[in-house]
Amino acid sequence: MGCARPSSTVTSTSTASASSAAARTHRGRVVVARQQPHAARTHCATTTTRVTAYDESRGGDDVVSDAEVERRERWRARAKTMRAKALKGYLARANANYADCFEKSDLEARAAETWMMIENRATIVPLRQLGNVAGNPRAGYAVCALDIGGDVGLCDFVIDTGATAALVTPKAIESMDKENVIEGAAIRGLTGTGETLRQKVTLKGVRMGAHEFVDGLDAVVTDLTAVGLPPVIGGLLGLDFLGKFVVEFDFSSSKLSFWPLGAVENGAVDVDDLVKIPMTTHPVGLKTVQVSLNGAAPFSAIVDMGSFFSVANWIASASAGIGPDSDKVKRGGLQVSGVDGQSMNMAMAPFDLRVLGEPGGDDLSSVYKGMCCVGDLPAFNALGASVSPFMAMGLDVIGRGRCVFDASKNVLYLAKGEETY
What we know:
- By secondary structure, this protein is an alpha+beta fold.
- It folds into three domains: about 10-35 and about 125-245, Beta Barrel (Cathepsin D, subunit A, domain 1), CATH 2.40.70.10; about 60-120, no CATH class; about 260-415, Acid Proteases (Cathepsin D, subunit A, domain 1, Beta Barrel), CATH 2.40.70.10.
- It has eight helices and 30 strands.
- Strands 3, 4, 19, 20, 21, 22, 23, 24, 25, 26, 27 and 28 form a twelve-stranded mixed sheet that branches. A ten-stranded mixed sheet has the order 1-2-10-11-14-9-15-8-7-6.
- α1 packs across α3 (about 105-120) and α2 packs parallel to α3 (about 105-120).
- The radius of gyration is 22 Å and the shape is globular.
- InterPro entries: Peptidase_aspartic_dom_sf (IPR021109).
- This is Peptidase A2 domain-containing protein.
- Pfam families: Asp_protease_2.
């Protein structure tokens, strides 16, 4: 997990990723010591679905593919499940005219057409993960390919909600066209194990599918090999990147969708089967939610997709009835490593986690059964949690089934149920 202060400081914490008697935790990633993580160098082409409008008044001159017909019917089927009032609300928030829709079927057709047009503006790519088993968050981190030009072209970047700034490796910088790399000032950084000094750059000509970052992508140059990521990884994408979209992670279907902002409010992204979790913004820019361990008083947790497992500090653990001397605590075999290569030991303990939803709404429950890491990360102290409960909520909670991350609205939608893989 990492974060960047909006001014001139980058903060990076360390969180945990896997459990094993001989496992190593790397800055939000734990790698079994006998295995090295790897990413396939085969890049799945990014896809942006396009729709061909069909105008019945023209006598069917436009040819519509079977896929487009199926897509339209899928959207219409969803619209049919809604009341007319709800459809009008979605259309209004999408700035779509429905004054000429006199029947509910007209509203359904207009909503389907509107949602298809919004979907056309989304970038939908395969959800690729570093690991072994698709659909399981322990299979690895969410990865997407960016076209950075130069000698490499497509380059893998790990998606990390626990970082406010994007990170880019020196190797990726070297492969880019020099005129597309604009150097900035050196900035101070804090990893989970100490302070560092990093170079800030702006990357021009970067694309994700059909989406081009006209103003460039701001990133901090960081060597990620120390945290166990393979050399083919070009960097991390943090909140400054993710905040430009409504990001839908479908771990079950291995699909990653970058929707236009407002896609939840206008109904293009369906969140009816998910638990709505309000987020707040920490002073350093990270997103936090309220959680409770073993029914104890709620406290803040960083939303961190840069971690396989959640990490609680010892104050949070003690408040949940599990102190350092508890027989439930398992020690040894886990280490946290920062980008500077420094490491510290971690413990593990079982907790029942509750992620607090909206007042009057649903909460999300998660049973760890021995999968939560415990340790006082130096970066937790830097985030102001030296004398209070605190944790980083990782993929063991976030990566179940499907989730929607909307940084612009400070809302996280998580899958229901208590399955934690």
